[in-house]
Amino acid sequence: MVNEVSNEDVVALVAEALECSKEELNENSRFREHGAWDSLAHLSTLALVDETFGVVLRGADFQEIKTVAELADYVRKARSS
Amino acid sequence: MAIVSLDGVGLVGLSAAVPKDQVDNLVPTGVFTEEQARAVVEKTGIRMRRIASASVCASDLCHLAADRLLNEMNIDRSTIDVLIFVSQTPDYRMPATAVLLQHRLGLTRATGAFDVNLGCSGFVYGLWMASSFCTQPAVRRVLLLNGETRTKAYSPRDRGTGLLFGDAGSAALIEKRSGTGTSFFSFNSDGSRGDFISIKSGGYRHPSSPETLREKTYENGSVRSDEHGVMNGPGVFEFLLEEVPADIRAVLAAAGATVDSMDAVVLHQANKFMNEHLRRKLRIPAEKVPYSLHEYGNTSSVSIPLTMATQLGQALRERSNRLLLSGFGVGLSWGSAVLTTDRMHVSELAELAA
User: Fold this and answer.
1) Of B98, B176, B207, B264, which sits with the fewest C-beta atoms within 10 Å of its C-beta?
2) Do strands B4-6 and B183-189 pair parallel, antiparallel, or not at all (unpaired)?
């Protein structure tokens, strides 16, 4: 498990969930608007966030998260609480 | 609920039945594109499924499994004191299907028979109920039937669920038995998430009407009516990540056991991606976690006994096994069990022709 969570780490994670290249995304990307976003990518995101950062994303919270940077903020907050 | 335990009772026989008709998720049907179907198969691990014909009910699959089990074990049917049928696809809204099965199976009128409306957690719950009855001095044997025709509950044109479910039935025989040690069970419920997996209409809250039967097209292209099942996949996965590992750890702790002391860990066959995530999270070696979903799909409460019968048959027949079982899903309802079986009777898988 990684100690510091950078926005780049989360860009890489979302790219893995979307099965796209990291270059297609940046911290401002609205990942739900990506062409590969579907319920399976959603599941992958939940799994990778749990596996990589030890954080279980709550459904209601996740609905509010639009960009990769917001997801990174959420993960950092959850890990420090 | 506290974790419960009981002694002097054993799961001694198991049998499962599936419809003979098989579908391959990769054969195009016009609903999913080849690419979509391949993505679902890769992620969920569900390739083949068994589909009951219009005339076959869950009770028919259970009847076949039970009849075979009782015949092969040479059980005097008058010694079965309780019959439990766990299903969310019963024959009728009334009477209870278990009562009809009492007659069809040739059990005596002194049999206590009732239905239990639970899904994916239903084998763990059923095993506990059956085992509890067997601790009564007057109860000799309990027959636990789990049956589902889930393919009839979901729309084949639903993008989220159209390729996931399969039909099956199982029969388990529980009786007084010394020497198998103590069994441990945990149970949990969360009705606040009742809508995560549900069929909204057709009960008494939202009775059936022409409107509830009307098929509607949703944003993602799914087509279903309000009398079809719906599943919030990501919501269910979040539930799985949050609740199930803790439940499994709790039942293991109560049993004074660890994953290492288990011979096998049989998980509800939800989907491979979710189950593998759960397995890694709990650090369970892959060889201890059998799968049957690639052949039979998600069969709800039948998935645990079906996996035991088809994947662990030889081990269950030949030796003693310490097992961890965990079922989780619709309700939301979840539970886990630690138990020991010893040289069980396990029938070969039965197939029911339409």
Assistant:
1) B207
2) antiparallel
ipTM score of complex: 0.71
Q: Which of B43, B235, B241 sits opposite A40 (nearest CB)?
A: B43
Query: What is the C-alpha separation between B241 and B244, in angstroms, rounded?
Result: 6
Residues contacting residue B60 through CB under 8 Å, at least 6 positions apart: B52, B169, B352
Total CB pairs under 8 A between chain A and B: 42
Active site residues of B: 120, 268, 298
Q: Residue B299 sits in which domain range?
A: 1-354
Q: How far is A56 from chain B (nearest CA, A)?
A: 7
- Closest-CA residue of B relative to A37 is B220
Question: What are residue B149's DSSP bridge partners?
Answer: B167
* CB crowding B232-260: b at 16 or more within 10 Å, else e: bbbbbbbbbbebbbebbeebbebbeeebe
Which phi and psi (to 5°) does residue B230 adopt? -130, 150
| B333: exposed, middle or buried (Cβ count in 10 Å: 0-12, 13-18, 19+) | buried
Chain B residues interacting with chain A (CB cutoff of 8 angstroms): 39-40, 43, 159-160, 220, 233-235, 237-238, 241-242, 273-274, 277, 280-281
User: pLDDT of B138-192, one tens digit each?
Assistant: 999 999 999 999 999 999 999 889 999 999 999 999 999 988 889 999 999 999 9
Fold observed for domain A7-80:
1.10.1200
pLDDT band at A1 (very low <50, low <70, confident <90, very high): low
Domain boundaries, chain A: 7-80
Whole-Å CA distances, B52 to A29, B30, B145, B234: 45, 21, 17, 28
B273/A47 CB distance under 8 A? yes
- Global pTM reads 0.92
Q: State which H helix or E strand residue B311 sits in.
A: helix B303-311
The domain spanning residue B171 has which CATH number?
3.40.47.10
Amino acid at B252: L
A61 to chain B, any CB pair closer than 8 A? The answer is no
Residue A12: φ, ψ to 5°: -65, -40
Give B114-132 pLDDT, tens digit per residue: 999 999 999 999 999 999 9
Q: Show residues of chain A in contact with B43, CB under 8 Å.
A: 40, 43
Q: What is the number of structural domains in chain B?
A: 1
pLDDT (tens digit per residue) in B184-208: 999 999 999 999 999 999 999 999 9
